[in-house]
Write a structure and sequence with these properties.
It is a single chain. This protein is of the alpha+beta class. It folds into three domains: about 70 residues, no CATH class; about 90 residues, no CATH class; about 190 residues, Jelly Rolls (Sandwich). About 30% of the residues lie in helices and about 30% in strands. The chain has seven helices and 17 strands. The longest helix is centred in the N-terminal third of the chain and has 61 residues. The radius of gyration is 33 Å and the shape is elongated. The relative contact order is 0.12.
């Protein structure tokens, strides 16, 4: 990929990129490859990826930063951040409640005022009739003498059509009050896949962006290789991830997709995490809820598309064959998704003739609109 090409190569190990920073007590080592990093330190907590360091905002917490080697300190900071987010949520809920209380109060007040005005006008009309009793009595006698159709025509002139139209408009406006908007967008353009820094043959993976914007990942040597997405999954968002699994001349379809814990992404294989495995072995997303097993197992030439749906907050992960969705499976043990852990989407390959192609990556959720909480003031 373009970003990968721009990175400098290690002078000692020219096949590896200098993309790591190493923090020691009295020194910071810049532009290190993964091999050099292992020689300098065996402590992964002292290693931070260059891009993560450059692009981190002021709220980002580096889990692998020397002062945070003490997990108690790290957990305390995370806890404070969660409390801050919770406090903001409570303030927002309070603001919404106050908005509706004020809205109901103003609407009820206007309805009461209008009702009193109508009553007052009816009383005025009634008094006027009583004051001019003879004239209206004569008119009443004439109305009684008319036939039914003429009488009905007079009554029909008194209607509430305009009032009903206004009522419907008000009801429609209330229905439009919404502080959230549902969005769904394909973010494949913004997604990159990175190589696991230390696990087995991950640095031998070949990752490239195709002309149709799809991301193709394959292994250049026969060895385990893990690659993960360049961002952490938001537990509250729902993700749709669609991939193509291809094999050629090798029947053992060791093609794995799933999620990997943030702290394990550079030193563990996806095979041991929450995953779907095309071989059908050692996978956790295997509880069939529709049709049969999704995987095709020992297929020499395979060109299969599967869709994975992820929602961490509800501990839900499902896979299905695409586009027919005839076979659907879900995570068998939801307790495997831990609430206090962060996850990334990941893939794993082993054989060189195999490919994983990322076709689609979408996220959808209800977003809080940027709206002001005030009532419309009417002019008199």
């Amino acid at each position: 990929m373009d970003q990968e090409k721009k990175q400098s190569k290690c002078n000692i190990h020219p096949t590896f990129n200098n993309n790591l920073l190493i923090f020691e007590e009295n020194n910071i080592h810049t532009k290190n490859c993964s091999v050099c990093a292992k020689q300098i330190t065996e402590n992964f907590n002292k290693i931070i990826e260059h891009d993560e360091f450059i692009h981190a905002d002021q709220n980002h917490i580096f889990s692998s930063f020397p002062p945070l080697e003490d997990k108690n300190i790290y957990n305390t900071i995370k806890s404070l951040q969660i409390k801050k987010d919770s406090s903001n949520q409570e303030k927002f809920i309070e603001k919404i409640n106050n908005y509706f209380i004020s809205l109901k109060k103003e609407i009820n007040q206007k309805i009461d005022n209008l009702q009193n005005q109508v009553k007052s006008k009816l009383l005025q009309i009634q008094n006027s009739i009583e004051n001019q009793g003879d004239i209206y009595n004569e008119l009443y006698k004439k109305i009684k003498q008319k036939n039914f159709s003429e009488y009905k025509a007079i009554i029909n002139k008194i209607n509430l059509k305009t009032s009903k139209e206004i009522q419907e408009k008000i009801s429609g406006l209330i229905d439009q009050i919404d502080f959230f908007e549902k969005s769904q967008k394909d973010i494949i353009d913004n997604v990159e896949f990175e190589k696991s820094k230390f696990y087995q043959g991950s640095q031998n993976l070949q990752i490239q962006r195709l002309q149709n914007k799809h991301i193709q990942i394959n292994q250049s040597v026969v060895n385990y290789g893990v690659s993960y997405a360049n961002f952490i999954l938001d537990p509250d968002q729902k993700y749709i991830f669609r991939v193509k699994l291809q094999t050629h001349s090798m029947p053992d379809a060791f093609l794995i997709v799933g999620i990997i814990q943030e702290e394990d992404k550079d030193n563990k294989q996806l095979y041991d995490e929450i995953c779907y495995n095309e071989t059908g072995n050692n996978m956790t997303i295997k509880k069939v809820i529709k049709g049969n097993n999704v995987y095709e197992r020992q297929k020499i030439n395979m060109d299969e598309e599967i869709e994975m749906r992820i929602h961490l907050a509800s501990k839900t992960i499902k896979v299905a064959n695409y586009p027919n969705y005839e076979n659907v499976a879900e995570l068998e043990n939801k307790q495997l998704i831990l609430e206090n852990k962060q996850y990334r989407l990941a893939v794993e390959l082993f054989f060189t003739p195999h490919k994983i192609i990322i076709l689609l990556y979408q996220q959808s959720m209800y977003l809080i609109k940027k709206c002001e909480f005030h009532l419309i003031k009417t002019t008199k």
